[in-house]
UniProtKB/TrEMBL annotation:
Domain Galactokinase N-terminal intervals: 8-55
Gene Ontology MF: a single term: galactokinase activity
Superkingdom of the organism of origin: Bacteria
Marked site: Transition state stabilizer: 25
Subcellular location: Cytoplasm
Residues where Mg(2+) binds: 124, 156
Amino acids binding ATP: 65, 118-124
Family: Belongs to the GHMP kinase family. GalK subfamily.
UniProt KW ATP-binding keyword: yes
Source organism of the structure: Algoriphagus aestuariicola
Protein name as catalogued: Galactokinase
Length: 388
């Protein structure tokens, strides 16, 4: 990918750029836990975004998106990020960096990548992190990775209009080859856990559906968790979120919450615990336990948290029936998107054909399969040969 971006940059702007890279991400386990300051377990993938950048000595920034085959120019003194346009991700990062006191001057930029957009790999976070890394490198700002991740998150909130958690840009910034990140969404710190799958490979199955209840349901779930914390705090002094309650106290939690609130709280509490168990299983190389935890996570998201949908349930259940599959669960916010599956590498083709024919027979949709390998986080791949 680096070559077409570099060549396009040279053709358009006739100079030699700095090149940055930032990856997409998967989440092995730990869903809907981030907004209760819980634990998630993401990893960077090899697919990503490459950004070529060079100073242009102007007060404007000239951009070219290789994948959209579109150009866009904006003036630095009249920044107006527009929701829905790819250039918003550049303007958003520039606006936030300027606000933070980094003085970004005019630049030219070309970027493109190989993350399927809207498929659950978080192309938008990769884009923001690649842009932040490129600008930081070009102007010598030396912005810490965590700040780049936080600016990426804030840019999505303020300019793209997406209320995402820290996980996506964090994993893109901090990912490491062969490692998953046990990320604490309270302290925004992580522990690297070796994620080696031996004869097995990770593959996403994209259901290709997105049900419209996702946004309302998301807000309702957040509110349900906050309400549970309010009700439980009288009985569990010192708790700030549901993450602070150990699963050993589940019976007490059940007696204190309504039949509606309890299963939601139960998901949060058990899912945080499953993240730790999954990390421990990977440390020990216990893949079958890891797979059981993926299944338990799916069942909890589907039955207790009620954020799955018939398509995701079908995909996960079909995978559980296949002996060559160690684990499968919905990945992401739910109501559509992907499942993540750990499948025997030599049996991937058979897996794809069985899932594809069953899913298309049931829903009339041919699913997409996205093989993923755990790769490195954001970095600068190439310094510019000359500067203006
Ligand atoms: P995802 O789940 O992949 O993050 P989003 O809807 O959050 O999906 O973000 C997708 C948006 O990010 C695209 O509509 C586009 O504006 C921007 N984007 C992502 N990848 C690219 C790319 N390779 N080139 C240009 N813009 C991109
Ligand atoms: Mg996104």
């Amino acid at each position: 990918m680096i070559n077409p971006i570099q060549t396009t940059f040279r053709n358009l702007f006739e100079s030699s750029p700095l090149i940055s890279f930032a990856p997409g991400r998967i989440n092995l386990i730990g869903e809907h836990t981030d907004y209760q300051e819980g634990f998630v377990f993401p990893a960077a993938v090899k697919q990503g975004i490459w950004v070529a950048i060079q100073k242009n000595g102007l007060k404007s920034c000239r951009l070219y998106s290789l994948d959209f085959d579109q150009e866009f120019t904006f003036e630095l003194d009249t920044l107006s990020p527009k929701k829905g346009h790819w250039a918003t991700y550049v303007m958003g990062m520039v606006a936030l960096l300027n606000q933070a006191g980094y003085s970004v001057s005019g630049f030219d930029m070309v970027f493109g990548g190989n993350i399927p957009v809207g498929s659950g790999l978080s192309s938008s976070a990769a884009l923001s992190v690649a842009i932040g890394t490129a600008i930081s490198g070009l102007f010598g700002f030396e912005i810490p990775k965590k700040s780049i991740a936080l600016y990426g998150q804030k840019s999505e909130h303020l300019f793209a209009g997406v209320k995402c958690g820290i996980m996506d840009p964090y994993a893109s910034a901090f990912g490491a080859k062969g490692k998953a990140l046990l990320l604490d969404c309270r302290s925004n710190t992580h522990e690297e856990i070796p994620a080696e799958f031996g004869d097995y490979s990770l593959i996403l199955v994209n259901s290709k559906v997105k049900h419209s209840l996702a946004d309302t349901a998301y807000n309702k779930r957040r509110e349900a968790c906050e309400e549970s914390v309010r009700l439980l705090s009288a009985h569990f002094p010192g708790i700030v979120t549901l993450r602070d309650i150990p699963s050993a106290d589940m019976e007490k939690v059940e007696t204190l919450l309504s039949a509606e609130l309890y299963p939601k709280a139960k998901h949060l509490i058990t899912e945080c615990e499953r993240v730790h168990e999954a990390a421990a299983a990977l440390k020990l190389g216990n893949l079958s336990l890891f797979g059981e935890l993926l299944k338990a996570s799916h069942l909890s998201l589907s039955k207790d948290y009620e954020v799955s949908c018939p398509e995701l349930d079908f995909l996960a259940e079909k995978s559980w029936e296949i002996t060559d599959v160690i684990g499968s669960r919905m990945m992401g916010g739910g109501f559509g998107g992907c499942t993540i599956n750990l499948v025997k590498s030599s049996r991937i083709m058979d897996f794809e054909s069985r899932i594809s024919s069953a899913y298309s027979a049931r829903f009339g949709i041919v699913p997409d399969f996205i093989p993923v390998q755990i790769g490195s986080g954001a970095s600068i791949l190439k310094e510019p040969a000359d500067t203006k």
